[in-house]
Design a protein that fits this description.
This protein has 437 residues and is of the alpha/beta class. It folds into 2 domains: 163 residues, Aspartate Aminotransferase, domain 1 (Alpha-Beta Complex); 266 residues, 3-Layer(aba) Sandwich (Aspartate Aminotransferase, domain 2). 37% of the residues lie in helices and 16% in strands. The protein contains 13 helices and 15 strands. The chain has a 7-stranded mixed sheet with strand order 4-10-9-8-7-5-6, with helices on both faces. Strand 2 and strand 3 form a beta hairpin. The longest helix is centred in the last third of the chain and has 22 residues. The chain is globular, with a radius of gyration of 21 Å.
């Protein structure tokens, strides 16, 4: 560990503070360090290991592909690439569309914006995005994100980003009296931003479809209304499904819970696409977008886009989700998890709000006072007791993810029910252990 602490530049941390165990293995919802300690993974690490650790079916698929063909560029065909693209189009109902493979979520979002602009014939077209959002940490995706941690590093205007308030019903930026009213106001704000641009200057709207580390779960009326407003204006809607896809929110893709009323023009994928066994991202686009690009030169490329090893892992991952009924399992376990967390909210005054319930994704927002909803520390700083709670949970062999005043629960979809219950029991105990005043 000392060697890694000295030699590796780690993301999203102060380097001098990094001090983590070295992980050497895992199975299902657990991973193991060099000392043999097992940890229950309540965040799927970066909300990406939807299939759990070392899923045997995916591991075998990677091994088999490595024995046949490790790499060929996208200038040549590759069987797993074609198979995965076909399967994604079938699962999403984007018949007649196409899939562009990237290396992860950030470059998938960058490429989705690039394709939307090119298809609309607006190379400098504006992109409407929202505050309190996250689409990646490259310069372009930082500009497209409403993330207070990185806003000083980039000029959104230089990247054509227009930001609107989020559908954050618990602290509605519009002062709306209900979740439904907040969802309505947030969707109308997008329409207003589009209309304010001269000569149809907005090429697309890029939004997270549901789950995200921003901790916002939009009201149910928001996404269908957003789709209605963008469609009526001829503006493409890009659904960032990097985190919310592949069962995390109880459907293959979060927008599917609204049926055709929620269908985007493009969607971006990563994380659960391979269950994080191999890096891979994708942009899935509609037949309309694909047709507009069909006879244009595509001035973009990534050396490893559509990498055969990664695509083979993706094909195996999709088969595992389907064969093991994990999408449906996420839906049922998510309902049970949400009910238990709501019960904790009545028991612990530090819990201001509980969001989620559609799948194995839930957000607990902590407050100083339930009535005033006052924060312990300015967003996105994490309260001292919350950081201590995470350390205590680790001592008990449970790994939790936090951001600001939020606890984000997103365990692997394969988690055993008794493990899920034990994790909530521990959380119940630890919330009572600390002084939150």
């Amino acid at each position: 560990m000392t060697r890694e602490r000295d030699d590796v530049l780690h993301s999203w941390c102060i380097q001098a503070d990094w001090n983590a165990p070295t992980i050497v293995g895992g199975e299902g919802a657990h991973f193991v360090d060099t000392e043999g300690r097992r940890y229950l993974d309540m965040s799927s690490l970066a909300e990406c290991m939807n299939l759990g650790h070392q899923h045997p079916y995916v591991v075998r698929a990677i091994q088999r592909q490595a024995e046949k063909l490790c790499f060929v560029t996208a200038a040549w065909g590759a069987e797993p690439r074609a198979t995965l693209a076909r399967r994604l189009l079938e699962l999403s109902g984007f018949e007649g569309g196409r899939v562009y493979f990237s290396l992860g979520g950030a470059d998938a979002n960058e490429h989705a914006v690039k394709f939307a602009r090119q298809a609309r014939g607006l190379p400098q077209g504006r992109i409407v995005v929202r505050d309190r959002s996250y689409h990646g940490a490259s310069y372009a995706t930082m500009a497209l994100s409403g993330d207070t941690r990185t806003q000083a590093q980039v000029d959104p205007e230089a990247f054509g980003a227009i930001r609107v308030p989020p559908p954050y019903a618990y602290r509605c930026p519009f002062g709306s009296p209900s979740d439904v009213a907040c969802g309505e106001a947030a969707a109308v704000a997008v329409a207003t931003a589009i209309d304010a641009q001269p000569d149809g200057g907005v090429a697309a709207v890029l939004m997270e479809a549901n789950a995200g580390t921003n901790g916002i779960v939009a009201p149910n009326n928001y996404w269908p209304r957003l789709r209605e407003e963008t469609r009526s204006r001829g503006v493409y809607l890009i659904a960032d499904e990097v985190m919310s896809g592949f069962g995390r929110c109880g459907e293959w893709f979060a927008w599917q819970r609204y049926g055709e009323a929620g269908r985007p023009d493009l969607m971006t994928l990563a994380k659960g696409l391979t269950g994080a066994h191999v890096p891979l991202g994708a942009v899935v686009m509609s037949a309309d977008v694909s047709a507009r690009l069909e006879h244009q030169m595509l001035y973009t490329g990534l050396t490893y886009c559509g990498h055969p090893l990664a695509c083979a892992a993706g094909v195996a991952a999709l088969e595992a989700y389907a064969q093991e009924g994990l999408i449906e399992r996420s839906r049922s376990l998510g309902r049970a998890l949400y009910a238990r967390l709501k019960a904790l909210q009545h028991k612990h005054s530090v819990i201001g709000d509980v969001r989620g319930g559609d799948g194995l994704f839930a957000v607990i927002e902590l407050v100083l006072d339930q009535a005033t909803r006052a924060l312990h520390a300015p967003w996105p700083a994490s309260p001292v007791p919350l950081r201590a709670l995470v350390r205590r949970a680790m001592e008990h062999g449970v790994s939790l993810a936090i951001r600001g005043n939020l606890i984000i629960l997103a365990p692997p979809l394969v988690i055993a029910e008794n493990d899920l219950d034990d994790a909530v029991d521990l959380l119940d105990h630890l919330l009572a252990e600390f002084d939150w005043t």
